[in-house]
From TrEMBL:
InterPro entries: NAD(P)-bd_dom_sf, Sc_DH/Rdtase_CS, SDR_fam. One of its GO terms (molecular function) is oxidoreductase activity. The keyword Oxidoreductase applies. It holds the Pfam family adh_short. Gene3D superfamilies: NAD(P)-binding Rossmann-like Domain (3.40.50.720). Keywords: Oxidoreductase. Belongs to the short-chain dehydrogenases/reductases (SDR) family. It comes from Rhodopirellula europaea 6C. This is Short-chain dehydrogenase/reductase SDR. Transmembrane segments: none annotated.
Amino acid sequence: MGFEMNFEVKDKVVLVTGANRGIGKVILEEALKRGASKVYAAVRNTDSADDLVNEHGDRVVPVRVDLEDPASITSAAKVATDVDLVINNAGVLKVKNALDDDAIEALQFEMNVNVYGLIRMVQAFAPVLKANGGGAIAQLNSVASVKTFGDLTTYCASKSASYSVTQGLRETLRDQGTQVVSVHPGPIATDMGKKRWLRRHRRLAGIGRHGNL
């Protein structure tokens, strides 16, 4: 599920958060395959993108982005002034239900990254996209934003909030010509997805082998 999006990546400049591994790395590589002129690998530690630079050359530009650090995001927006497409893929997950002693702490952590991090990103990059003609934003929200699993209650709550923000952004940014898409994959065998609950949740969600929590 999500919003229909009509955006041609060829010859565009893309920024991907969490681009050094998992889904983010695949998104970066796919953008390059589809003809993106440059991809900013937005990662917490720019050294973690060295392999991507070695493989793809100057088409990959590492830039520091920590969704918990607003200053890193505003600094990145000053570097990536030519970006056309922002893909906010980075996120965090805690395996917590609402009765766990540390459920509130887990939710605060997940909200700070998964929701406040999204808001920080769009506040910094929406003006950049506007200046470059509108562009697009894609937010990785996952099936957990519309389906709650008991032992992932706090994570699902954060993703539900992120989905709500994404829908609001779609309306808010329409007038500046920025397309906004919400992405809702199911479980994928990434580092985040390789948990004991992966198979069980895939079955409960009624989804296949591909996707991302």
